[in-house]
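User: Could you check the structure of this?
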Amino acid sequence: MRNPARGPSGFLDLRLQMMLAVAYMAVLLAVSPLVPGVRWLEPGDFSATEVAYYHAVMFELVMLGLLAVSYVVGLPRRLSLAVSASNVPIMALNVLGVGLFYPAWASTADDVVQGLRDVWLFALSLAVFIGLLAFPFIDRGVRSLARATWSAYALLVVSTASALIAGFMGLTAAWGQYLNFAGAPSWVMSLINEWGGPSTFLGNVITSHSHEMLPAIGGAIVALVAMAVGYSSYRGPARRLVDAGMIVAIFGTISMTVLYIISSYGTYSIPTIAPFGPQGVNGLALDDSQTGLIGWGALIVALGLMGSGVLASRPMSRRNLLILEIATWLAAIFVLVGIGYPIEFNEAFFGFGVNGTPPSGGPGFMYDDLFMRGHLIFAFYLMPVLAGAAASAIAITGSDERALGATKATPYVGLTGIVLGADCVLAWMITDGLGQVLAAGLAIVVLTLFIVVYAMAVAARGRTGSNRALLSSSYLFFLSR
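Assistant: Sure, the predicted structure tokens are below.
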């Protein structure tokens, strides 16, 4: 992992910027119930307001990922500086975009602000991706890390590429939705018409974007955690397990990405595996089987990381955070695979959330609507945010135990929220009840984010020669807000 001296210092210190990113996401999630039009526990898909707010948080998760990659991999100073210097402007554009979303007179300004943010973050992600490809050949430190953690580094590169492709799909969708493909050459419009016309094309691109982005980010988080923990020092079965899990996740990421590309920029229709039931409505979608491989790969990696005696030599603070991290993986897989797959095998009843008869609906559509909202808010929202926060905290936790006191609570508080949230997604779907308990679990998850921010602050204070300047910068930034 990088030597902090190589990166930016002062306010642009990567550790401080990671802390600010996590704190920003925690604050936005904490105040979200007070925001007009944001009602997280309404059955069905997100509303337009909720989608805007969701992206204001998740764009910062992408930013946090770029900061963590720069820190863990040890990307050279200039690139790290560009990433670090972009964090606060991206946060400001996120907040401004949410504020301009509401008044009708500001719709054009909102499109400009969000468009600037989208292009900025895409360009920055592309620069980091190019750096991941190039610097193993030109930078000795990155080359050494890539060799020692070859499987994790490969997953990080593949996941970053997949996230970039999903981001490009998002830009394509925004181009069509808000600008009606203004300025598109005739050959582009001809292709879009061949792919079913603008409406069909936009639907396919938006679906692929939303389905691909989070699994890609998840794969990158798994790779970063393994590198930050120092799995390169593992030997024997534990090391082989980690490498095997990474390979499984790499395969799932590549196959998932190919499926979403050809189903968006083409006419390929993703099939159902071994369909059965009325007109073949039951069965597992091929793309879901591939995104699931990323989750199974993560579980294999977790077994390797937790099953090695090497972990016992790591600081207890880092082990506490790793327990929290792996719990987010388990919870997401429980909801997406443990609950989501059985629903797909019984779509004749659940009806894809549509009231009707198979294949266009089903009598249990209301349960599918409840699951849709439950899995969106928990597995596609809070768990990735908490996983990204815990991964960043693991990265900056040093060999000392300065952060031990701050991290002692994370497994207990975090696991309480995660277990309540995961279990109540299922209970809420089945009974349309226990919504208050689910809300309590989600609130505890957000509380855990604040605990992680505190742990990051303590860890960073113990690892810099300019502790007072680092924490003073953080204090002054929040004071100015």
